[in-house]
Amino acid sequence: MTTAKDLLFSPFALGPLSLPNRLVMAPLTRCRAGEGNVPTELNARYYEQRSSAGFIITEATQVTPEGVGYLRTPGIHTDAQVAGWRLVTDAIHRAGGRGFLQLWHVGRASHPSFQPNRQAPVSSSAIAIRNGHAYTPEGPQPYATPRALETGEIAGVVARFEDGARRAKAAGFDGVEIHAANGYLIDQFLRDGVNQRTDRYGGSVENRARFLLEITEAVTGVFGADRVGVRVSPLADFNDMSDSDPRALFGHVAAELSARKVVYLHVVEPLSGQALDAAARVTPLLRERFRGALVVNGGYTLETAEAALRTGAADLVSFGAPFLANPDLPERLLRRAPLNAPDVATFYSEGPRGYIDYPRLGEAAVERASAGAQVA
Ligand SMILES: Cc1cc2nc3c(=O)[nH]c(=O)nc-3n(C[C@H](O)[C@H](O)[C@H](O)COP(=O)(O)O)c2cc1C
Fold first, then answer.
1. Rounded distance, CA 128 to CA 110, Å?
2. Coiled coil located at which positions (predicted)?
């Protein structure tokens, strides 16, 4: 008898890649890169432990020094970073896994203390994030008012994403994911709660999608569209984001990405506590408009993931916090074994604790000060 469980643990052809299951490791920032924002052996060990995922999407990785907004996040703009990521891809491949690097620029979600020459961060428009803080080397600080990129500067930023893709390829990644979600630079162009531009990158949905589509074309030129995915979060309000008509905007984005044949679209639905009903209105539209694989994310469990696959709502499901806390998540879900609880206190801390010491099934549990599921 075919059951939904057979679907989650059944193979899937993602472009040229044969995935052994449909369970994806979602991108997770862990703030544990080494000096110069270079990935280390510690990072390689963490990803290697999670190689039983259908495929791994790495933590968000800045394509340029101007794209930094947090401490110790890895980059993909120096040769040393390429060498560091090579440790990671070798470890993933040795363990039989597959890895995509998430290409990132935080835009206005930054602070002068992260920027070259302490300059203002850049964005689509000169509007600061009011809610939340930048976690700088000098402690939490209000976000700075960004500088709106000049029209003539935008091609240069697109080129940074292209360079990042080239370096990700040199580092041995199987593909890349363009981070257009969660209120970072590309999302700051997409959504009109932030984008107030009057040039060809602002105004209509076509204009606001242009930056993402130019990046997509540049990056697919490096990797081939069958190794490029895009992540969006149409309804998320993180980083003060909003849009007057998410259906019109993201329906257009999905159709244009489909025309460019990107291999998957990764949709972050609102996380628990937000309006899931609203998500239910946007995701089916994206499914309709986008021909490639649809990856869904946001608070999924074994049961809800199975239901999404069974009903045809999605092709793949990504797990964030559960994968962070369970290196052997596919095996645990397959066996319906209990899951380790994520330790929020060590999400962004330093060192191996709360990073590479979550036990596999049958290993002794580690004593922790705090435990409880939470997503950022
Ligand atoms: C510690 C942590 C770090 C995260 N870092 C990223 C990131 O680098 N890029 C990204 O697109 N999303 C990031 N997210 C969001 C997750 O990918 C995911 O969307 C979220 O955790 C919801 O999925 P889940 O319920 O399966 O955890 C992060 C979430 C957490 C908890």
1. 10
2. none
Query: Which residues in the chain come in under a pLDDT of 70?
Result: 1-5, 270-280, 366-376
Between CA 253 and CA 278 the distance in angstroms is 18
Q: Which of 46, 184, 201, 355 is catalytic?
A: 184
Give distance in angstroms: CA of 326 to centre of ligand 1: 15
Counting Cα atoms < 13 Å in the Cβ hemisphere of 259 gives 8
The answer to whether 110 and 69 have CB atoms below 8 angstroms apart is yes
pLDDT for the residue 364: 73
Measured in Å, how far apart are the chain's first and last C-alpha atoms?
38
Nearest CA to ligand 1 atom 30: 376
Domain that holds residue 76: 4-346
Whether residue 298 has its Cβ less than 6 Å from ligand 1? yes
**What are the residues facing 296 on neighbouring strands?**
267, 317
Q: Total domain count for the chain?
A: 1
How far is residue 140's CA from residue 281's CA, in Å, rounded to a whole number? 36
Has residue 367 been placed in a domain?
A: no
List the CATH number of the domain containing 262: 3.20.20.70
Residue 134: per-residue pLDDT:
95
pLDDT at 375: 33
184 tagged catalytic? yes
* Residue 212 within a domain: yes
In a domain, 353, yes or no: no
pLDDT of residue 271: 45
370 in any annotated domain: no
Question: In ligand 1, which atom is closest to the CA atom of 299?
Answer: 25
Ligand 1 centre and the CA of 374: distance in Å?
10
Give the pLDDT confidence of 53-72 residue by residue, as tens digits.
999 999 999 999 999 999 99
Ligand 1 proximity of 181 Cβ (cutoff 6 Å)? yes
Q: Is the CB of 168 under 6 A from ligand 1?
A: no
